TrEMBL record:
Alphabetized Pfam families for the sequence: WD40_2
Matches recorded under InterPro entries: JIP3/JIP4
One Gene Ontology CC term in the entry: cytoplasm
Name under which the protein is recorded: Putative guanine nucleotide exchange factor
GO molecular function (one): MAP-kinase scaffold activity
Biological process (GO), any one: vesicle-mediated transport
Length: 239
């Protein structure tokens, strides 16, 4: 379940369909089936994609993030295209006066920044983006945290200690420049390459060579494909 504005996206366990409902009237607004999209992008016979189910949901950066039981991660931009039709029934009449019995929405918590008819998170799979970086097993969860302006900002030669100090201290009013979206699950796979055991074994040799005996002991008896992984996306925020 994922909620924003006046809409909530809901999915049932072991189902590939997302359903959008109005949080106030409980009206069913939209259905989205992601299985045809995943099958089209990755193929029906590849890595057991015969059955797609949604296991994780998140709304962040004006996008709906979906994780599946096959480790596939999809993000779809939210759209206001459907809001015009939805808001037409709640607009005042030509005289500027609402008809008797019209719906009046009351919000008690101003901290949520929600106003009357604020936003209904419609989306279209025609604008969906599939990440070629995924997990070998189901996507367990999504988390979104504010960033400080880029993963590579610390590598710039022009960075000074004074600037670093300013970032560390930071004013409370400073708004984040980006969001970091993290997905968690077992194993990692690049769907463009596929299931390569040779790459995993060579990756283990490299990690040991650069000096990670603690990590090797920690995961002793566990192959790389079975370890828990976090995948991080950096999404810039519009200023």
């Amino acid at each position: 379940m994922a909620w924003v504005g006046d809409g909530v996206w809901v999915t049932i366990r072991l189902d590939s369909t997302l359903r959008l409902y109005n949080v106030h009237t409980y009206q069913h607004l939209q259905d989205i089936d992601i299985e045809p999209y995943v099958s089209k992008m990755l193929g029906t016979g590849k890595l057991g994609f015969s059955f797609v189910r949604i296991t994780a949901l998140l709304i962040s950066c004006n996008r709906l993030w979906m994780g599946t039981g096959n480790g596939v991660i999809i993000s779809v931009p939210l759209s206001e295209a459907g809001n015009k039709q939805a808001s037409a029934s709640t607009t005042p009449s030509a005289s500027g006066v609402r008809m008797p019995g019209a719906v009046v929405r009351v919000y008690s918590d101003s901290r949520e920044n929600i106003t009357t008819g604020s936003f209904v998170p419609y989306c279209s799979m025609a604008q969906a983006q599939l990440s070629f970086h995924g997990h070998r097993d189901s996507v367990k969860f999504f988390v979104a945290v504010p960033g400080t302006g880029g993963m590579g900002s610390s590598d710039k030669e022009g960075a000074t200690e004074e600037k670093t100090g300013d970032i560390a201290l930071g004013s409370e009013d400073a708004s984040p420049k980006c969001m970091l979206v993290l997905s968690g699950g077992e194993g990692y796979i690049d769907f463009r390459v596929g299931d390569g055991e040779e790459e995993e074994s060579s990756g283990d040799r490299i990690s040991v060579a650069i000096g990670a005996p603690v990590e090797k002991k920690l995961h002793q008896g566990t192959s790389k494909s079975e370890r828990s992984h976090l995948i991080v996306w950096e999404v810039a925020l519009n200023e």
